[in-house]
Write a structure and sequence with these properties.
Order of helices and strands: EHEHEHEHEH
Shape: globular
Strand order of the largest sheet: 2-1-3-4-5
Number of strands: 5
Number of helices: 5
Strand content: 15-25%
Distance between the termini: 16 Å
Radius of gyration: 13 Å
Length: 120
């Protein structure tokens, strides 16, 4: 399983990476600090999952999802963000995201993330 984690917060990337690595030891995880890195990685490895923040430098999560949509990519996207404005949520839901998880991350929210990847 290939997974991209895109978040400009090193803390968030580390938490999600450790959790996924523990639950899915065979997963190949690519860590990205912004949407541009994530876009390039997505085009290169075509991951099973993309976990992305929205508020990032260079290319936001919305711009990333829009760019992937423009390329005809229809992947499994999970948005993890503190930006919970109704308009923002509706915009990213239009790109076919699996779910939107609000920050801050709690044990229950992290378990939801793992369950989604497991297909539960």
């Amino acid at each position: 399983m290939n997974i991209i984690i895109a978040d400009d917060s090193g803390f968030v990337r580390t938490i999600i990476n450790k959790l996924i690595s523990t639950e899915f030891p065979d997963a190949k995880i690519k860590l990205c600090t912004n949407g541009k890195e994530a876009f390039d990685a997505y085009m290169d490895i075509n991951p099973d999952w993309l976990i992305t923040d929205l508020l990032m430098p260079e290319m936001s999560g919305q711009q990333l999802l829009s760019a992937l949509n423009a390329e005809g990519k229809k992947g499994k996207y999970i948005v993890v963000s503190a930006d919970v404005q109704k308009g923002t949520k509706e915009e990213v839901e239009g790109y076919g995201i699996v779910t939107f998880i609000n920050k801050p991350l709690t044990p229950d929210k992290l378990q939801k993330l793992i369950n989604l990847i497991r297909g539960e």
